[in-house]
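Re-run with default settings, no changes from the original entry. Doing this only to confirm the output is reproducible before filing.
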Amino acid sequence: MEYQEFIENVTLLLRREMGPDYEVKTRDVTKNNGIHLTGVIMMRESDKMSPTIYLEEPYRMYREEGRSLQGIVTDIVQLYREQMANISFDVDRFRDFGYVRNHIFYKLINYERNPELLADVPHFKWCDLAIVFYYSLAESRQGRASILIRNSHLDLWRQSAEELGRIAHGNMRRGMPELFIPMRQMVKEITGSEPPASARLSMYVLTNRSKLNGAAAMLYSEQMKGLADRLETDLLILPSSVHEVILLPDDHEQPYDFYRRMVREVNTTQVDPEEILSYRIYRYSRKKAEIEEISG
């Protein structure tokens, strides 16, 4: 069964499963890096919002794992009910900027890979990246629910992008405090064993405490300066994904092209296309106390 036919059959079965009180429809959703996904939405007339459940992974399970259509529909309904139980959203409060302002944060995405998305959202260009904003709803087993802030929201709140940026920057340190992890410690946490003695000890991972969209922590990190001062050198910043960056001394042990190839290899083989941040590298200048893109 081809994907479009799969979508039509799943939608039909969901309509039967949910009953006449629910409207079941699909929509094309533009995600980060220009990735288009097909989402299904199930809503009653009284619902103010509904989670979007994407069908790409269920289709993979149908094609590669032999899952039945009915089993997939049952899973989608269960996931929908779990997410509805975990999302608390008050539309009236969302209209009130006095309340909303305390829940606005920002993240980094690639500027050149997101022209369609950036045309619809307030943003600021930073190096080859863009700072975009979101409203944080709540934590759940599926992660942190959020709403990407669009230009229409600024009109609703009668706010400027500059004011949004100022507020979000203040919220980041309080609500998304930076997390600074030595690479040796992270390897141990992931593998459960000590890395080999030959592993480089002077690499660090910078993210935030939730480890979601943590690359933005480099915009307000205080520990980055402390590390540069302690090592008495500039720092190289390698974009690992939208969720974290890697820091290491800019000691010229390897040419910059070596690190560019490393970033490209990781992006190609280890990172989901939607989570790629950049193919470029950056430097924290100890003298300037600021981050700059390394050109050439």
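The chain has a mean pLDDT of 91. The first helix runs from residue 3 to 18.
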